[in-house]
Amino acid sequence: MPVITNVEDLRLLAKKRVPKMFYDYADSGSWTEGTYRANEADFQAIKLRQRVAVNMENRTTAVTMVGQAAKMPVAIAPVGLTGMQHADGEILAARAAERFGIPFTLSTMSICSIEDIAEHTKAPFWFQLYMMRDRDAMARMIDRCKAARCSALVLTLDLQVIGQRHKDLKNKMRASVVPSFGNIVDIATKPRWVLGMMGTRRHTFRNLVGHVQGVSDVKSLASWTNEQFDPRLSWPDVDWVKQRWGGKLILKGIMEVEDAKLAVEHGADAIVVSNHGGRQLDGAPSSIRALPAIVDAVGSRTEVWMDGGIRSGQDVLKAWALGARGTMIGRAMAYGLGAMGEAGVTRMLEILHKELDVTMAFCGHTDLKKVDHRILVPGTYPTV
């Protein structure tokens, strides 16, 4: 087993162990992938100020995110097809998050179902909802979240239409998760992955199959999914979700101040500054660049979080210093899961936490809640 010291180590190992069609699905952006690359690069441009001769004992990175205690300001982001990075992937990631002490978010387009996660975990988890045309199906899904005692609903607003990801087209990725001949050949070279999949019954979108009218198998699922993402999604739909749900509501996909203000007006308990990991609008700014203006506009009225490009605990610290009161990580989780299953997700969280904790100390702080933009070198970070 190789020595794993950072998230990049996990990525390289996942690339070896996960079939190409599924690895590329998680590790790709739309069109030129310019925004995907900017999400990471813009973090690297931000520099930290080192302080010395400060007592570094009794450090804490503990926070709350929409009232839920977290060991650090990190939650697992919703990632579709997580159960194809590793068998039972969503269950394994949720268990790792629970044991580590951070929130986990299940995607609508997950392989494991809401009920699967509830059965295999004790901590409350979050569910991410894509708005579909079938409102009855959406209402039933929200009711299932209530029955599973989900503690927050994450409504994704930036997938009314789907950005083109060239790698998915070339890999012949389909909603039905049926590989082409070329993909089957590639899968045959991944025996560890194959053995895992042979040991589980979870191979399709279990939040949908058997729960949506007319969707009973892989073929009908593909047809339904291709027609269901709703381009009509608008703020009245957000109101409908909030009323139907009745609990904590997090709105994900906010990149502009105008939309952040509307999100607050429509009752968001938190908003996630996010460009969908560079998978939707290519050419959009990075999430970290969009963050300060949105924090300035609405940070006193709702919790502002961000996702996109986080590959280290230093990135988490930089986002916190710029006003994010939480972060969400998707690809880093997928890398850990694909590399080593539940142990890989746990290792990824350990790496992020240690990097966050030690970097905070180097910057002269022992309590994350007291950290602000003054730990950053002026001129290296985005401002309002």
Structural features, described:
The protein has 384 residues and is of the alpha/beta class. It has one domain (7-375): Alpha-Beta Barrel (TIM Barrel). 43% of the residues lie in helices and 11% in strands. It has helices at residues 7-17, 20-26, 34-45, 89-100, 114-120, 135-147, 166-170, 181-187, 191-198, 218-228, 235-245, 257-265, 287-298, 313-321, 331-340, 342-362, and strands at 63-65, 68-70, 74-76, 105-107, 126-130, 152-156, 248-254, 270-273, 303-307, 327-329. It has an eight-stranded parallel beta sheet with strand order 3-10-9-8-7-6-5-4. The chain is globular and about 65 Å long. The termini are far apart. The model has no long low-confidence stretch (mean pLDDT 95).
**Residue-averaged pLDDT, rounded?**
95
What is the level-2 CATH architecture name?
A: Alpha-Beta Barrel
Order of helices and strands: HHHEEEHEHEHEHHHHHEHEHEHEHH
* Whole-angstrom Rg: 20 Å
Number of helices: 16
Give the uncertain stretches in residue-range form. none
Features:
single chain, 384 residues, alpha/beta, TIM Barrel, eight-stranded parallel β-sheet, two-stranded antiparallel ribbon, 16 helices, 10 strands, 11% strand, globular
Give the structure's gist in a few sentences.
Helices cover 43% and strands 11% of the residues. It has helices at residues 7-17, 20-26, 34-45, 89-100, 114-120, 135-147, 166-170, 181-187, 191-198, 218-228, 235-245, 257-265, 287-298, 313-321, 331-340, 342-362, and strands at 63-65, 68-70, 74-76, 105-107, 126-130, 152-156, 248-254, 270-273, 303-307, 327-329. Helix 12 packs across helix 13 and helix 15 crosses helix 16 (342-362).
